[in-house]
Amino acid sequence: MDKSLGWLILWLQLDWVSSKQEVTQSPEALNVRERDSVVVNCSYTDGALYSLQWFRQDPGQGLTFLLLIQSNQREQTGGRIKVSLDTATRQSVLYIAASQPSDSATYLCAVRHSAQQASVTNT
After folding, report:
1. Do 54 and 83 meet the contact criterion of CB atoms below 8 Å apart?
2. Residues 6+ apart with CB under 8 A from 8
């Protein structure tokens, strides 16, 4: 049986993202067949990246954290999900292997700017 999965990709800006930072994702929407691989791109404009996070959101639910990748890392993997980061091109890619109907969700990326790291002070 040929099943098609519907995907909706949205842009997200969290409070800790620099106001000068622009984050875009592509494609905006994606239909895939069950067991196909999925590729979602996230591009950002400011090169002073500290970390990039990927989330998913099921209809009517809050955000679910998937993976975090820091600027000094090239790849992170968790189960069927892999995230790559290329700071030279300012792009992260989310890969989902062997997609399943339960993967139907909204996928979001968020960028944390390096200047926004919390400073620690000993007293």
Report:
1. yes
2. 28, 29, 105, 106
Which amino acid, 42?
A: C
Q: Where are the domains of the chain?
A: 4-115
- The pLDDT-based confidence of 20 (bands split at 50, 70, 90) is low
Residues recorded for the chain: 123
pLDDT digits 0-9 by tens, 54-84:
999 998 999 999 999 999 999 999 999 999 9
CATH class (in words) of the domain with range 4-115: mainly beta
Task: Tell me the pLDDT band of 27, cut-offs 50, 70 and 90.
Answer: confident
Q: What is the pTM of this model?
A: 0.75
Judge contact between 31 and 4, C-beta under 8 A.
yes
* Cα separation, 16 vs 28, whole angstroms: 23
CB 108 within 8 A of CB 54: yes
